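stage 2 :: seqdesign
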C-alpha cells in the first residue's frame, strides 16, 4: 500500500491518491507514515522536475495534491496523540518580488512533520515583514526562498535589514530556490543554501543540534 501510494503521488494520480489516503486512515495506519510516504512521492516529483521530465504545471499540481493529502491527514495527527513536542521555531518566506510558493510550501510541510513550529509568511514578502516576524517569534532559523534572479538582491537586502535591526548575530539564515547556489549564498550573506526541502530540514536540525 505504501509503495503504491508513493508512486501514485509521484505520477500525480489525484483521485487514487486521495482515495488511498482515506483508506489508510480508515485502517488506522499511523498518520505520520502517510506523510512520510507523501514526502517520498514529492522527492520523486522533484527529481523528475530537475531531470526535465516534469515542468512547472506538474510541480504546481503536485504542491496542490500534497496540500490536499496534508489536510486530510492533519486532523488525525493530533487525535492520535502523535503530535510531538515542537523542537523549535523557524520562519520561512519567499522574498519580495517573487511569487513562487511550491518549494516554500514543501519546506513548510517537511519542517512541520519533522517537529518544527513553522511561521510561513507566504510569497512576495516585504523586508519589514520578515524582520518583524523574526523579532516577534524569536526564531533562531530563517529560510528565504526565491526562484528568480531578482530574488538575489531581495535576499541580500533582507539580511542587511536584519543586521541593522540587530537580529543577525544569533540568527541562522538559509536560502533556497531555483537558481540558488553557494555564490548567491555569499552574495546574500546567508549561512547556507539548501538544494531541496530535505536539505532545509537537515540544516535546521544541525543548527538546533538535533540528530
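stage 2 :: out
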Amino acid at each position: 500500500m505504501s509503495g503504491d501510494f508513493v508512486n501514485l503521488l509521484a505520477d500525480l494520480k489525484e483521485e487514487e491518491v486521495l482515495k488511498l489516503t482515506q483508506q489508510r486512515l480508515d485502517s488506522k495506519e499511523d498518520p505520520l507514515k502517510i506523510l512520510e510516504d507523501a514526502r517520498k512521492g514529492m522527492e520523486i516529483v522533484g527529481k523528475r522536475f530537475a531531470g526535465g521530465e516534469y515542468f512547472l504545471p506538474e510541480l504546481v499540481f503536485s504542491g496542490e495534491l500534497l496540500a490536499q493529502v496534508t489536510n486530510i491527514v492533519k486532523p488525525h495527527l493530533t487525535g492520535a496523540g502523535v503530535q510531538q513536542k515542537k523542537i523549535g521555531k523557524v520562519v520561512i518566506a519567499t522574498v519580495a518580488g517573487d511569487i513562487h510558493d511550491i518549494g516554500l510550501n514543501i519546506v513548510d510541510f517537511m519542517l512541520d512533520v519533522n517537529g518544527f513550529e513553522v511561521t510561513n509568511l507566504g510569497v512576495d514578502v516585504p523586508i519589514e515583514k520578515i524582520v518583524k516576524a523574526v523579532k516577534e517569534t524569536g526564531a533562531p532559523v530563517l529560510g528565504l526562498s526565491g526562484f528568480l534572479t531578482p530574488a538575489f538582491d531581495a535576499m541580500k537586502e533582507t539580511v542587511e535589514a536584519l543586521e541593522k535591526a540587530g537580529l543577525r548575530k544569533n540568527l541562522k539564515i538559509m536560502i533556497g530556490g531555483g537558481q540558488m547556489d553557494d555564490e548567491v549564498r555569499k552574495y546574500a550573506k546567508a549561512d547556507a543554501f539548501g538544494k531541496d526541502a530535505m536539505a532545509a530540514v537537515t540544516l535546521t536540525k544541525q543548527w538546533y543540534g538535533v540528530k
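stage 3 :: structure notes
- The chain has two domains: 2-79, 88-208.
- The domain at 88-208 is CATH 3.40.50.280 (Rossmann fold).
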